[in-house]
Design a protein that fits this description.
Protein name: FLYWCH-type domain-containing protein
Number of strands: 6
Pfam families: RYYR-CCHC
Helix content: 25-40%
Largest sheet: 6 strands, antiparallel
Distance between the termini: 30 Å
Organism: Parascaris univalens
InterPro entries: RYYR-CCHC
Length: 87
């Protein structure tokens, strides 16, 4: 069973599954960090806000924000998640 889980996770990382499978804890121990693997690179997104009526959650790239603060230049990646799927 463990092998099948590893294969599933590997295939998700390789082909970029649109279903959110990994939400991790922030430093305040709240489930607000979304981990997305893109081309073998981990990108973490921080929860900005959520709409209870529609079930949509909005995230922004945590490293992009830090980079923009330091360099005063660059773009910030945003994600929208609806019912567990990246939109």
């Amino acid at each position: 069973m463990m092998e099948s889980m590893e294969k599933m996770e590997e295939s998700d990382e390789r082909y970029g599954s649109l279903i959110v499978r990994r939400v991790s804890l922030s430093r305040h121990l709240k489930a607000t960090m979304l981990n997305v693997y893109e081309c073998g690179v981990l990108r973490q997104y921080s929860l900005i806000r959520g709409d209870k009526e529609t079930g949509r959650q909005y995230y922004r790239c945590a490293k992009c924000v830090g980079w923009k603060r330091k360099q005063q230049d660059g773009r910030i990646a945003y994600l929208s998640v609806l019912n567990g799927k990246i939109v």
